[in-house]
Amino acid sequence: MDAHLGTPMGTHKDMKQNRPRWKTYLMELAALGVLFVGRASFADHYHVPSGSMEPTLQVRDHLMVDKRAYGLRVPLTHVWLTESEPRRGDVIVFDSPIDGKVMVKRLVGLPGDRIAFEGESLHINGQPVAQELTPDGARLELLPGALHPIHPEPYQGPDMDELEIPPRHYLVLGDHRGNSADSRVWGLLPRENLLGRVVAVLYSPRDGISGSERWWIPMSTDEGRGVDARLSR
């Protein structure tokens, strides 16, 4: 018997064309759903719109945000399914309690803390948080558990009288405190408004760095005991 080598009965393209249109739409809808849930619940990226977090974050920096850091939420809601506690010093993304816009600040006050701010220095539970100047002129704040840069201007008002933070609320400040509308202006941040923790600057167009230096600048090194030099430039 002679063997007959013919063409395949149908190519991948033919099979795709023969697939019912409703199945194609359903598959595309499912893919969009997976993408939506992933961005809403696990990880996302944002860009920085203002200079309130300088020098740590600068305008047009692109941020990688871990949206699992504080638990899982029902997408597009403030309803938490699971919860994990933030840490002092985290750079967080949240919905503004004033107008719902997405904001980014540094979390400095936890429930039970007594916090005050006196123009130049932050006070936690009655103790001033130390600062130091580096040889290249950068100003660092030795926030317990989260050494980080702040803007070098000495006066960073407005002041804030001491207050005690109630349960499920946090106090947030910008690293450029003289140019930041934060908890000193609009009050404490409810836990329900948290969106996630900034893990790194994914890409930065800031001056003073170039090439591969612009990619992936972590928020902290050595478990908070160090600062990536790129964040203080």
TrEMBL record:
It is found in: Membrane. Pfam families: Peptidase_S26 (PF10502). The keyword Cell inner membrane does not apply. Its EC number is 3.4.21.89. InterPro entries: LexA/Signal_pep-like_sf, Pept_S26A_signal_pept_1, Pept_S26A_signal_pept_1_CS, Pept_S26A_signal_pept_1_Lys-AS, Pept_S26A_signal_pept_1_Ser-AS, Peptidase_S26. It catalyses: Cleavage of hydrophobic, N-terminal signal or leader sequences from secreted and periplasmic proteins. One of its GO terms (molecular function) is signal peptidase activity. Keywords: Hydrolase, Protease. The keyword Cell membrane does not apply. Its main location: membrane. It is a single-pass type II membrane protein. Residues 27-202 form the Peptidase S26 domain. Belongs to the peptidase S26 family. This is Signal peptidase I. The lineage of its organism: Bacteria, Pseudomonadati, Myxococcota, Myxococcia, Myxococcales. The gene is lepB.
